[in-house]
Automatic annotation (TrEMBL):
Organism in which the protein naturally occurs: Allochromatium humboldtianum
InterPro entries: DNA-bd_dom_put_sf (IPR009061), HTH_17 (IPR041657), WH-like_DNA-bd_sf (IPR036388)
Domain Helix-turn-helix: 13-62
Protein name per its UniProtKB record: Helix-turn-helix domain-containing protein
Length: 69
């Protein structure tokens, strides 16, 4: 049998866990998802899940150097 070269599956965060990681409320994260302004998410049936690396990537893109625009 050949060893698998596939990357291991990472644990996905629930909506509440992802909101806690970002330091925001659960409702704010839901609103962002509905508006399409929040981090990427997975929909598994009715369950919404967030990959921790996707959260970190999205957060890094939110950095601003000034308040204009």
């Amino acid at each position: 049998m050949q060893p698998s070269s596939a990357a291991p599956i990472r644990r996905r965060l629930t909506e509440r866990e992802a909101a806690a990681e970002l330091g925001i409320s659960f409702r704010t994260l839901q609103q962002w998802r509905v508006r399409g302004t929040g981090p990427a998410f997975l929909k598994l049936g009715r369950a919404v899940r967030y990959d921790i690396l996707a959260l970190e990537d999205w957060l890094a893109k939110q950095v601003h150097t000034n308040t204009s625009g």
